[in-house]
Automatic annotation (TrEMBL), chains A, B:
Cofactor names: pyridoxal 5'-phosphate
Enzymatic reactions: 4-amino-4-deoxychorismate = 4-aminobenzoate + pyruvate + H(+)
A Pfam family it matches: Aminotran_4
First-tier enzyme category under EC: lyase
Family affiliation: Belongs to the class-IV pyridoxal-phosphate-dependent aminotransferase family.
Protein name: aminodeoxychorismate lyase
Entry superkingdom: Bacteria
SUPFAM superfamilies: D-aminoacid aminotransferase-like PLP-dependent enzymes
Keyword Lyase: yes
Length: 279, 279
């Protein structure tokens, strides 16, 4: 796949109106997932988070039936190769609006589907882990928007722009109280003395679907993940650390800046449990 | 004017690509201004703030020449009535991008011009003032983005959605430390014992062009505005209060929730000093 394709409100059109509230105010939410052999991986969980996120900003999420109908129509025009392996991003916005912040009394949410090529990840990423850079950009505390994968992502953009050195795969994001919250493009977990820990996301950060899958899996194992604040010290002294999202799956962290982190088989053992196919 | 018109990158097209970073991440800035007899009111100051805002998020603002050229082309297709009185919103985004937060190494910023009708404000608004509602939605502290009129405006959307009672013209926004910062759609000033005060915008809020004009005007009068934190108590005990933006100009505040605020001729006296034409 060389080009990016999109579908807006069930049509293969080339654009959205500049008065769409997604463009005007970032007034919407999104999720990114893998398309694998014609199936959206973890679609039920992705749809559930879209509904929950929309609800938190008072958007009525389109029905799963409508989204699936539009997705199937979109997929019908995809090449066989792209149907087997690619990335699908779903954006839901509050829809069209007049000038001004007031949400329109009646609005039909806009549905956008974007199909992109699967990134060409080097296989060593899955075997040797990845290095993270500690970003200077900090996350603000905004409990009203915390956890939601909304379209107001300037903090992530500024943080990602800090990564100039190609040795680093992603950045580490902290809040202004020096708590580590997440990676720029995913969530993080550490293991210490047999216990798995991940930061709370009630003040900032995005609660990813892969994070939820991992929380759910450990729960079924009778070993629930401890959700508690993490400091940089906790990360550096961890027995192991992983970053996770719905595109790259689970990756072991090998370095934070220039400091090596113990790497073991945590990510490798976890992937099959999550039914995550790397390639 | 009954419809909203737009111009994208100098063309009268109907849409922007869903991969535009303005849509994907709110990765851009905007300003809204009055079009009066073919002239953009306070354009030099608006352009200066566009350049400064772009710079803070590492976007290279298009030249004033290019924006003016595209504006003139856009205006050529407007009706005479719309050329005399309307609203122009200028949006600058980082441009097109691939999937992922990383800003593209090379990108041409997208320029969007939107023309909308001037709101049909009741004349009493200018003579009797307006009532404000104290929003429950609070502004997060994010010094990296404070003051910038960027496209990440979900806080304003949530705050504006609180205003259900038509008695209220706008909402009052506070931060999580109970400081009053701004109105949802404008900045605010109070007068107390002959001194004019306005809140600092170094942690949150948008620094509007009308606010800047007022700061500049008081400076030329040898009476500089005091920029210092304001509490709800300061507002309720003020001798007078105004809210300001580039669309409605300067409005006296007559009530905060159910509490009356002294109204005098402050707004009426200030308008001609700012060369602001109400209708």
């Amino acid at each position: 796949m060389t080009t990016v394709r999109y579908c807006v409100n069930g049509k293969l059109v080339s654009g959205i109106a500049p008065t769409n509230r997604g463009f005007a105010y970032g007034d919407g939410v999104f999720r990114t997932m893998r398309l694998l052999n014609g199936e959206l991986q973890d679609w039920p969980l992705h749809y559930q988070t879209l509904v929950a996120d929309c609800s938190k900003i008072q958007i009525v999420c389109p029905s799963a039936e409508l989204l699936m109908q539009e997705f199937k129509y979109f997929l019908a025009s995809a090449s066989e190769e792209d149907t087997q392996f690619s990335i699908i991003k779903i954006i839901i916005t509050r829809g069209e609006g007049a000038r001004g912040y007031a949400p329109p009394a009646v609005s039909e949410p806009t549905r956008v589907l974007i199909q992109s090529p699967l990134p060409d990840y080097p296989p060593e990423m899955y075997t040797h882990g990845v290095a993270l850079y500690t970003c200077q950009t900090r996350l603000a505390h905004q409990p009203l928007l915390a956890g939601i994968k909304h379209l107001n992502r300037l903090e992530n953009v500024l943080a990602r722009a800090e990564l100039k050195d190609p040795r680093f795969f992603d950045g580490l994001l902290r809040d202004y109280d020096d708590n580590v919250i997440e990676a720029v493009s995913g969530n993080l977990f550490i293991r210490k003395d047999g216990m798995v820990r991940t930061p709370p996301l009630d003040s900032c950060g995005v609660a990813g679907v892969m994070r939820q899958k991992i929380l759910d899996w450990y729960k079924t194992q009778g070993q629930p993940v401890v959700i508690a604040p993490l400091s940089m010290g906790d990360l550096l002294q961890a027995d192991a650390m992983i970053i996770v999202n719905s595109v790259y799956g689970v990756l072991q962290v090998s370095h934070i800046d220039d400091q090596p982190i113990t790497t073991n088989h945590w990510a490798k053992e976890l992937r099959p449990q999550l039914h995550y196919v790397t390639h």
